[in-house]
Amino acid sequence: EVYFKNLSKQKQKEVMEKNGNNHKLRVCVATCNRADYSKLAPIMFGIKAEPQCFELDVVVLGSHLIDDYGNTYRMIEQDDFDIHTRLHTIVRGEDEAAMVESVGLALVKLPDVLNRLKPDIMIVHGDRFDALALATSAALMNIRILHIEGGEVSGTIDDSIRHAITKLAHYHVCCTRSAEQHLIAMCEDHDRILLAGCPSYDKLLSAKNKDYMSIIRMWLGEDVKTRDYIVALQHPVTTDIKHSIKMFELTLDALISFNKRTLVLFPNVDAGSKEMVRVMRKKGIEHHPNFRAVKHVPFDQFIQLVAHAGCMIGNSSCGVREVGAFGTPVINLGTRQTGRETGENVLHVRDADTQDKILHALQLQFGKQYPCSKIYGDGNAVPRILKFLKSIDLKEPLQKKFCFPPVKDNISQDIDHILETQSALAVDLGGTNLRVAIVSMKGEIVKKYTQLNPKTYEDRLALILKMCVEAASEAVNVNCRILGVGISTGGRVNPREGIVLHSTKLIQEWSSVDLRTPISDALHLPVWVDNDGNCAALAERKFGHGKGIENFVTLITGTGIGGGIVHQHELIHGSSFCAAELGHIVVSLDGPECLCGSQGCIEAYASGIALQREAKKLHDDDLLLVEGMSMKEEEIVSAAHLIQAAKLGNTKAESILRTAGTALGLGVVNILHTVNPSLVILSGVLANHYVNAVKDVINRQALSSVKTVDVVVSNLADPALLGAASLVLDYTTRRIY
C-alpha cells in the first residue's frame, strides 16, 4: 500500500511538472437540475477546498431556473458557490418536442459561455437531455469531459443519452463494478475509468446523525412519527408517456386508500410531467389532509426524510440508489429503472397496471427495516475523484481512443471474397424434378438439392419451402450470404407480380399461382420469378456467351423448346409476358400436333418429347434397334435411344433427327429475320445434336445480311439454376432487370 501511495504521489508530481507548476486545473461544473446537483455538490465542495490545485466555474441551466420546479439554483447560492453563468434553456411544453427544442436552445447558448470560460475540463453528470447538450458542446469545442455515473443501465431514453455521453466523454467516474465493466465493454480506455462510488454517498453515510425530527415535522406536520410516512417521487417515462401517467394515477389512488401521511414531490421537467401535475390536481392531492405536495426539498433535508420514512414509492433513481444506504423500504414502479443494481430493500412492481397491485406492495413494504446497502458507494468517492482530476495530463492528445477488443483478420473484408460469398437461392421447377441450389456471385453452384416434383400444388409449394429453408440454413455453414430467391419455372409468368399465369402440361396444377408471397413471407427474403427460357437467357447474359453482348437469343432444347431474347442488354417479356415462346414458332402448316394444341411448332419436331414420340413409333415397328443396341423389356423408349440409333447408322433415326434439326433451324431463321441478334446460343441436352443442322439451314434459308450470325452451344452446366440466381444477383447488385 505504501508503495502504491508513493507511486501515485510521484505520478501526480510528474503531471504537475508537465502541466506547469503554477497551473491550476480550470474545472467547469455544469448542473441542470436538483437531482444532478446532489451528485455534483460534494465534488464542487472538494474542488473549492483545494484552491491551490483547481479553479471552479459553475454553470447553471435547465430546470434549476424555473419557478414551477422550485428555482433550485438558490440552493447552489446557499451552498456559497458563485454561479458564473445562468442559461435559460428549457422550452416549456413538457412534451417530446419541447425536450428536443431545449437541447437545441442549449446548443445555441453554450458555445459563447465555453469560449468565455475556456475550461480545461468540464464535469457532466448522468443521463439528462440537458447533459447531452453540454457534452456535445464541449466535445465539439475540444474541451475534455469527465462524465459522472456512466456505464449504468436503466429504462427509458435515459439509457441511450447516458451511453451517448459516454462516447463523447474523455474520462469516466463510475459507481459500481458492473458499470465499470459496461464502460470497458463499450471500448472505453480502462486507464481513463475511475471506480469511485457515488459522490452523494459521501453525505448519505453520515447523514443519520443529524437532527431529523425537526425536518420531518417541517415537511409533514407536527404529529408525524418516524417510519410512519411515505415519500413519493414519480417521473414520466418518456418512451411511454401515456402508460406512465396512468400508472401515476393508480399510484395516487393506492396512496389515498393506504391512508398514510405522504410527501409527494412534483415530477421532473421531462415530457409528460405537465399531465402528471394535472392528475395530482384532479385528485386534489395539494389539498388532501394526508398529503404534502412540494416542488423541491433541499438534498440535505431530503436525505433525512427518506432515511426515516416507512417507505419510498415511485420510479426515481434515488429510490434504487441512495435510499439503499439507509435500508428504507422502496417500491419501484414500472420500467424507468429497469437494469439498475438494487439492494434487497427494493420491491419491483414492473407492470403496475392495477391499484390493488400497488396497494398490496405498500402493505408488504411499509414500516420494514432492511440492512443498509453500499452498492453505490462507501463514502470516499470525492477524494478519489479529486485525485483522479489531479492526475489528468493536459499535454496528452485530446483525441480520445477506443479500446476495441481484438478481432480476427476477416477474409470477407476483401472485396473479391465479398463478391464470392454474396449468393442467391435458385429454384428450378422442371417437369420431372424440383431443384434448389445456393449459387455464388461468380456462378458457382455451392450446394444443390434435388427432389421429384410433386403432382399437386400444395405438395409442390410445401416442398419448395422445405428445400429453401434447408438451403438457407446450410448457406450459413458454407459462408454464403443469401440476397434473395430466384425461381425458374415452365409456363407463362408475370415477373412483376411473381405469379405463374398458366403452365405447360408438364407441370400440373400450376396456373394462377402466386409464388412470391408465400416464399418471401416464409424466408423473409425478396423473391423473383420468371419463365425458364428467360432465365436461361439471363444466365447467358451474366455467366455465359451472352456476357457483354447487346442483342442475343437463347434457345433451350430439352423436354420442350423454350428461350429468351435479350435486346439492347434487356430481357424482352412482351405486353402479356408471352415474348420468346420460341418453341411455338410454326414451321409447317400440316406438321405434327404440339402440346399447345397447334400443329407444326418447332417443339412438335425438335423437343425431347417429340423425339421420344418418333422413337416409340420406330420401336413399335421394330425399326429402332440396330446392331450394337439393346434394351431391357421394362426400359422406356426415350430420345436418347433415337440419338444412339442414328449414331450407329439407323437411317430412319438419322432422318428424324435431320427433320428436327431443320425445323429448329427454320425457327432460328425466323428469329433472325425478326429481331436480328448478333448471337444465337443453343442450350440444353440436345444442343450439340442440333448446332450443325441449324447452321446449315441458316446458310441455305436466311437473308445474306443475317448469315454472319454466330451460333454457339452454351457452356453453362445448369442454365436454369444459374438464370434463377441471375434474377437475384443482377437486381441486388444494381443491374437493371
TrEMBL record:
<dbReference type="GO" id="GO:0006047">
    <property type="term" value="P:UDP-N-acetylglucosamine metabolic process"/>
</dbReference>
<feature type="binding site">
    <location>
        <position position="492"/>
    </location>
    <ligand>
        <name>an N-acyl-D-mannosamine</name>
    </ligand>
</feature>
<dbReference type="GO" id="GO:0005829">
    <property type="term" value="C:cytosol"/>
</dbReference>
<feature type="binding site">
    <location>
        <position position="596"/>
    </location>
    <ligand>
        <name>Zn(2+)</name>
    </ligand>
</feature>
<dbReference type="GO" id="GO:0046872">
    <property type="term" value="F:metal ion binding"/>
</dbReference>
<feature type="binding site">
    <location>
        <position position="504"/>
    </location>
    <ligand>
        <name>an N-acyl-D-mannosamine</name>
    </ligand>
</feature>
<dbReference type="GO" id="GO:0005524">
    <property type="term" value="F:ATP binding"/>
</dbReference>
<keyword id="KW-0963">Cytoplasm</keyword>
<keyword id="KW-0378">Hydrolase</keyword>
<feature type="binding site">
    <location>
        <position position="584"/>
    </location>
    <ligand>
        <name>an N-acyl-D-mannosamine</name>
    </ligand>
</feature>
<keyword id="KW-0067">ATP-binding</keyword>
<keyword id="KW-0021">Allosteric enzyme</keyword>
<keyword id="KW-0418">Kinase</keyword>
<keyword id="KW-0597">Phosphoprotein</keyword>
<comment type="similarity">
    <text>In the N-terminal section; belongs to the UDP-N-acetylglucosamine 2-epimerase family.</text>
</comment>
<keyword id="KW-0862">Zinc</keyword>
<feature type="binding site">
    <location>
        <position position="603"/>
    </location>
    <ligand>
        <name>an N-acyl-D-mannosamine</name>
    </ligand>
</feature>
<dbReference type="GO" id="GO:0009384">
    <property type="term" value="F:N-acylmannosamine kinase activity"/>
</dbReference>
<dbReference type="InterPro" id="IPR043129">
    <property type="entry name" value="ATPase_NBD"/>
</dbReference>
<keyword id="KW-0511">Multifunctional enzyme</keyword>
<dbReference type="InterPro" id="IPR000600">
    <property type="entry name" value="ROK"/>
</dbReference>
<feature type="binding site">
    <location>
        <position position="584"/>
    </location>
    <ligand>
        <name>Zn(2+)</name>
    </ligand>
</feature>
<feature type="binding site">
    <location>
        <position position="594"/>
    </location>
    <ligand>
        <name>Zn(2+)</name>
    </ligand>
</feature>
<keyword id="KW-0479">Metal-binding</keyword>
<dbReference type="InterPro" id="IPR020004">
    <property type="entry name" value="UDP-GlcNAc_Epase"/>
</dbReference>
<feature type="domain" description="UDP-N-acetylglucosamine 2-epimerase">
    <location>
        <begin position="53"/>
        <end position="390"/>
    </location>
</feature>
<dbReference type="GO" id="GO:0004553">
    <property type="term" value="F:hydrolase activity, hydrolyzing O-glycosyl compounds"/>
</dbReference>
<feature type="binding site">
    <location>
        <position position="581"/>
    </location>
    <ligand>
        <name>an N-acyl-D-mannosamine</name>
    </ligand>
</feature>
<comment type="pathway">
    <text>Amino-sugar metabolism; N-acetylneuraminate biosynthesis.</text>
</comment>
<comment type="similarity">
    <text>In the C-terminal section; belongs to the ROK (NagC/XylR) family.</text>
</comment>
<dbReference type="InterPro" id="IPR003331">
    <property type="entry name" value="UDP_GlcNAc_Epimerase_2_dom"/>
</dbReference>
<feature type="binding site">
    <location>
        <position position="532"/>
    </location>
    <ligand>
        <name>an N-acyl-D-mannosamine</name>
    </ligand>
</feature>
<protein>
    <recommendedName>
        <fullName>Bifunctional UDP-N-acetylglucosamine 2-epimerase/N-acetylmannosamine kinase</fullName>
        <ecNumber>2.7.1.60</ecNumber>
        <ecNumber>3.2.1.183</ecNumber>
    </recommendedName>
</protein>
<dbReference type="GO" id="GO:0008761">
    <property type="term" value="F:UDP-N-acetylglucosamine 2-epimerase activity"/>
</dbReference>
<keyword id="KW-0808">Transferase</keyword>
<dbReference type="Pfam" id="PF02350">
    <property type="entry name" value="Epimerase_2"/>
</dbReference>
<feature type="binding site">
    <location>
        <position position="601"/>
    </location>
    <ligand>
        <name>Zn(2+)</name>
    </ligand>
</feature>
<feature type="active site">
    <location>
        <position position="532"/>
    </location>
</feature>
<comment type="subunit">
    <text>Homodimer. Homotetramer. Homohexamer. The hexameric form exhibits both enzyme activities, whereas the dimeric form only catalyzes the phosphorylation of N-acyl-D-mannosamine.</text>
</comment>
<dbReference type="Pfam" id="PF00480">
    <property type="entry name" value="ROK"/>
</dbReference>
<keyword id="KW-0547">Nucleotide-binding</keyword>
